[in-house]
Amino acid sequence: MGSRVKIQSGYLGKAAIEVKAGANRDTVKSLLEANKEAGIVALTGLDMAKKIGLMYHMCTNGVIVTIKTEIPKKNPKIATISDLIPGAQFHEREAADLFGVIFEGHPNPARLVLPDDWPENLYPLRKDAKIDEALANAETAPRQTEAVQAESEGDIVNIIIGPQHPALLEPEKFSVKVEGETVKQVEPRIGYVHRGIEKAAEQRTYLQDVYLVERICGICNSCHAACFVETVEKILGTEVPLRAQYLRTIILELNRLHSHMLLLGHAGLEIGYETLFQYMWRDREPVMDLTEQLTGNRVISSAMTVGGIRRDLQETDIPKVKTQITTLKKKMDFYYKLFENEPSFKIRTQNVGVLSKEDALKLSVVGPVARASGIAIDVRKDEPYEAYGEIPFNLITRDEGDSWARLMVRLDEVVESINIIDYALDHMPSGPFRVKVPRVVVAGEAINHVEAPRGELFYYVKSQGTAYPERVKVRTPTFANIPAFINIAEGGNIADVPPSFVSLDPCFSCTDR
Amino acid sequence: MVVDLWFVFRVLVFPGFTFIFFFTMFCDWMERKIEARMQNRVGPAFTGPAGILQPFADIIKLLSKEDIIPSGAKRNVFRLAPILAFSFVVFAFSFLPIDGSAVIPNSSFAGDLIFVMALITIANFFLFLSGWASSNPYGDIGATRVLTQFLGYDIPLTLLALAPAFIAGSLTISVIAANQYLPFAILAPWAFVLFIVTLQAELEKDPFDIPHAESEVIGGLETEFGGGKLAFLRLTRDVQIVFGAALVVELFLGGPYGPVFFGLPELWYFLWFVLKILAVVLITEYVTCLFARLRIDQVLSGNWKVLLPLSVLSLALTVAVATWIYPLVM
Amino acid sequence: MSKLATWARLKSPWVLHFNSGACNGCDIEVIALLTPRYDVERFGIKLEGSPRHADVLLTTGSVTKQCAERLKRIYEQMPEPKFVVAIGACACSGGVFKGNYNVLDGVDKVIPVNVYIPGCPPKPEAIIDGVVKLLNSVKEAKPNGK
Fold first, then answer.
1. Any idea which architecture A2-112 has in CATH?
2. What is the CATH number of the domain that holds C29?
3. Inter-chain touch B292–A342, beta carbons under 8 Å
4. What is the pLDDT of residues A164-204, one digit of tens each?
5. What is the model's pTM?
6. A258, A375, B233, B302: which could form a disulfide with A287 (CB 3.0–4.6 Å)?
């Protein structure tokens, strides 16, 4: 690669490499040769007036390396890397939708997040896009209507699941081609929940954005807020007080508790085990109560703010939190017994939707899905943030890679989360819980990642030295895990689709943003 | 004329249609309550005392709703199938001795056990037709699942029903019920347990409720139905559950017969019958709450590989025991 | 007779839940309604999967452009009399997403709404209260669109 490469240090991960447009493939290739377990985290597009910047955030051994390149806006063409890393397919399709980048050689360059009747050549994240005007013109154009009826070609029946379907709490469409009982092909159509949050974040101040990004996903809301404020703090160079770090850790773990229990209960619903669902959600309610007690809100906690946390922990709260989580920990024994022994539960989840370690690496999956396939990645261990560096906890992995293992990983993590909260409460440092930060953020850019309940959550923020961010990029864990669903479902039984799907913990409001 | 009035009363009021309807509603309420209690909830609570009127409210509301026939549906079948399915189940019910004699007086005949089971098959076939007529992919899948599952489990069910018939030496339900000085559930417990399991599959309850798997097929065959037609489909299902329980009672638990302490024997018979049915409903609902739903291929292979051989075995065992051992004991 | 029908309607509102672009916050609170602590089956409320079975449409979230068509269709598939409850700030007015390029603000831009339940997300108690308010208004029986 020689002279084309310029090594930079900074906030873009452990290293940032700037390469010329043509060299992106070679760089990725040599990275993969150096480390077979490398994967893609995100692909950030950036409007740079005359040019479009592309940043390939790659992950090797838990650390992020960024490959930067620029292409002219007039002719935004670049070679695809999705043949090298299949996990990059969706990232490239998203960049094509939002920035109009053309990835040459992409196997399926169809629209991903924007609606079907979105005007051609209108790319919402480009700064010069006249969206209102273009949309007003497009109003007159006839609307396309989507096909609803199942159609069949020979022996292959095309079943369309969604956008309204009881198994999906969120609107999203899957065309499933079925031959007999075997799934031949799955084609997801995401974008039903695409609200254009990345664009909206550019139009709001940093403080307003904290509230906006929380609402990317109501389930892992604290993680979004925490990741965003940490990124901004990195640009600002703010040192967050230790007490705030511990408090954030507690809130994040409560978030993980409620999210994992929600999913485990929902899994019961998907396999027709309503009793499990009711029990799990009953035991989840105390977690919601604790969140409400500590932050003032049951679901969307709004606890994080740039420079610390918005509410201090009252000394009187500690015993109540401790009793509640101890009771919860005792109740987990019951679920262990159920998950490990109940025959009808095991028959529906064991050896169902197996994702091998090789496939998991190839598709760059994250979080419990990766850990259930034997990949030991966890941002809390790899690059400890907040108080995770000081708190002892186990990294849970399982080797089976099936739906059961994915659920078991979450069950184990519930117990780990309880232990983390317990430890954090015992070792709570005193001191301030917030420091003052300027409203205007100095120019700079930073990336950050945290371990959300569903896996690695990634943020990129670029500041131009104003009160408004220039660009906010969010790569959610579910976006990285969607390709795994296609891999799991194809070739399997149609009745196995719900359990294997739910074991990936899908969340489309995250995926679409 | 007097006889005719009596006949009309028996068919329409007691123990005929009206009673079956109200009793089904009561069982439905009880099922929902049991399920809720098993799941740590309260269940219907404010519709009448302890929510007992909840099923009535559901049915009346459905009947008062707009009746939609989807444009793609096969109109006549779509209209008629739910009502016919309901009628056939109720018709089958009227051959069961509820207060000592069948609903329609003197309707019992030799071999009516087989006839009643055939009626139930026909009712299920109309359920399938209604799903098929709605021309909705999910309705189609749900209907096919009903048919596949029903046809599969019909065979072991019939074989198992033959066990009590053998012991009693008759294919007439009232004779089988009347001949149980010791309930057949005690004399042939293997057949009894298998019959309950098969019935669970036949009635499409967990772990066999594949045609109603919401996460897979939305409402199954009911998906496109709303208003009055949905009311009939739901009623059919509810009456089927009570009918299944009644069949267990007739074949294995001594039918309506039990100790008569004073007064009219009919009243006592009726009381025993109701209590026994409620006990069976309790058991099936309990099983429902304990298990997750199986997959359709697991259910089918479970039938052909496990239940069918077992039911043949059980029949052989029953025949052997009924021929050589019971005459010695009794 | 109509008194009986009104009574039945009040006692057996079957609901359908549709997320037209929400963040899941409201959705999990809607699902929480079914679980032991809130248990809305007490009031006869049942969550149904098919629009044909439902009396009340619980919508959550701002309406995205891709979802608008489908939301309308689901509403049209429901048999009369039908009611719509908009749950959460986003469903009421677009909430925090108001003005975004892919968002049509509130649900009432697409279908008529009977009850608005603000909150981000509203607590389950608030949702129950909203449904009770809807039921009280049903007593005077003015179905949608009439």
1. 2-Layer Sandwich (3.30)
2. 3.40.50.12280
3. yes
4. 676 666 667 777 777 767 787 787 777 788 888 888 888 88
5. 0.84
6. A258
